[in-house]
Design a protein that fits this description.
heterodimer, A: 160 residues, mainly alpha, Rna Polymerase Sigma Factor, Chain: A, Arc Repressor Mutant, subunit A, globular, B: 285 residues, alpha+beta, Actin, Chain A, domain 4, Heat Shock Protein 90, 2 domains, 7-stranded mixed beta sheet, 7 helices, 10 strands, flat
Chain lengths: 160, 285
């Protein structure tokens, strides 16, 4: 048990930037994203005994993080909807950042939760289809079809 | 889709706040605070210190709730006036462990009935709300691809802490927390003068000038604490502290007989700062 806990803590410490970026991509707000990360860690540590296999630390924690993010969106529905999608203070500007990129990034936030999650995990976090399937508790085929559908909807949104 | 790479560039450039590391450390060290408060508190919760004197009997409280409660002994001097009811419930949606205080034998039955009724109704409502949220959360787990068996019942705790009890004055705090989403915790403050039967407010204790006294102390303390770069408070524009609005501001009386003003998590500072407490340096008792 102690091993799994240590492994989890190690994973969290090494990947804190990623965890923050995922949370941020859901709520687009620094304070809320920090809260999500914090709540997720506390929740994971409290429920660590439900995690049986050490090799699933990563996907298990991602699932908690995503559930926390979605929960946070629900609780703060109005605040988040009102917010303008102006990222100027939230990103480090560099030459690789394009208007199209920002537009697309913002549009991903408009996708349905299920589609948004697979897009973020697959294209931003470069997770494997199998890992995403474990995180979302679905099958690899479902993940693939959601990815496809997500991309289709994004194409429509960009054209608009 | 090639464009997605461009979005990934944006994603990779999301600024990492300097606070992240301390946030993560704090969460890992699991310094779970004694209480949290729930996010909408500022707007949703009216002050506990309402002074309606209504003559209402216990029968109005949900009878099934009242019947399932039983008394647990309270130790020490305080037992004379303080009693605690314990209540448990456990099903696949939630696990409730509640210790709900009540006052007794004060020789002031109006007061006892009023306060106890108020506590009971509040706890009843709070538990009901927690239950609704648990149901909502369960739906959300399933909606996001989880299965029913993956849902861990929400753990709802109600507990209390006696802050001050000397002579006729009793100050206590009731905490209600839901451990699946700790952001949903409510805190209720009671400062009672047993002899007069009054819920004491800041004006009663500090006089007409209470606002100036409290505001000055808080502004100074915020300034002092802000010197540490690890601390941050919202500015007035961001919804930060802008002076207390009335004498019903939440507070308790600490063991040294001083007023401690309490702001819930998120109320005047970012969530990682936790609950904010300010002791007012006036000896009131």
């Amino acid at each position: 048990m102690q091993d799994i806990t240590n492994r989890l803590i190690e994973f969290i410490e090494e990947n804190q930037d990623k965890l923050y970026r995922i949370a941020f991509s859901y709520v687009k707000n620094e304070d809320l994203a920090l809260d999500i990360v914090q709540e997720s860690i506390e929740k994971a540590l409290r429920n660590i005994k439900t995690l049986k296999h050490e090799e699933y630390v990563k996907t298990w924690f991602y699932r908690i993080l995503i559930n926390e993010s979605l929960g946070c969106i629900r609780r703060n529905k109005n605040a988040i909807l009102c917010q303008v999608e102006d990222l100027k203070d939230d990103i480090e500007w560099n030459d690789n950042i394009t208007i199209e990129g920002i537009d697309l990034y913002n549009n991903i936030g408009k996708l349905k939760e299920k589609l948004r999650t697979v897009i973020i995990l697959r294209f931003f976090e470069d997770l494997k289809i199998e890992e995403i399937a474990r995180i979302t508790k679905t099958s690899p085929n479902t993940v693939k079809s959601r990815l496809y559908k997500g991309l289709e909807e994004l194409k429509k949104l960009i054209k608009m | 889709m090639e464009e997605i790479k461009k979005a990934q560039e944006v994603y990779k450039s999301i600024k990492i706040p300097s606070k992240l590391e301390s946030c993560v450390k704090e969460a890992i060290s699991n310094k779970t605070k004694k209480y949290y408060s729930f996010r909408g508190l500022k707007y949703a919760m009216s002050t506990v210190a309402c002074t309606f004197v209504a003559f209402i009997f216990f029968v109005n409280v949900n009878p099934s709730f009242a019947q399932q409660m039983y008394d647990i002994p309270v130790i020490g001097d305080i037992a004379k006036v303080f009693t605690v009811k314990e209540y448990h419930e456990n099903d696949d949606l939630k696990l409730i462990n509640a210790k709900i205080p009540a006052i007794q034998n004060t020789g002031n039955t109006d007061l006892e009935q009023r306060i106890n009724y108020e506590i009971m109704t509040k706890m009843n409502d709070a538990l009901k709300e927690a239950e609704d949220r648990a149901a909502e959360y369960k739906d959300a787990v399933i909606a996001t691809g989880g299965e029913e068996k993956d849902y861990v019942p929400v753990n709802i705790q109600v507990d209390y802490e006696i802050k001050y009890s000397v002579d006729d004055i009793i100050s206590f705090v009731i905490y209600k927390s839901e451990t699946l989403a700790s952001a949903y915790t409510e805190t209720f403050f009671y400062n009672i003068d047993i002899e007069t039967g009054k819920n004491l407010n800041l004006k009663d204790l500090l006089g007409e000038n209470y606002k100036d006294i409290v505001n000055e102390a808080i502004y100074n303390e915020i300034e002092e604490r802000s010197k540490d770069s690890g601390n941050s408070y919202f500015t007035a524009d961001e919804g930060g502290f802008a002076g207390i609005t009335d004498e019903f501001q939440d507070f308790y009386i600490n063991s040294s007989g001083k007023i401690v003003i309490v702001f819930p998590k998120y109320a005047i500072a970012p969530g990682y700062m936790g609950v904010q407490e300010f002791e007012i340096d006036e000896q009131i008792f």
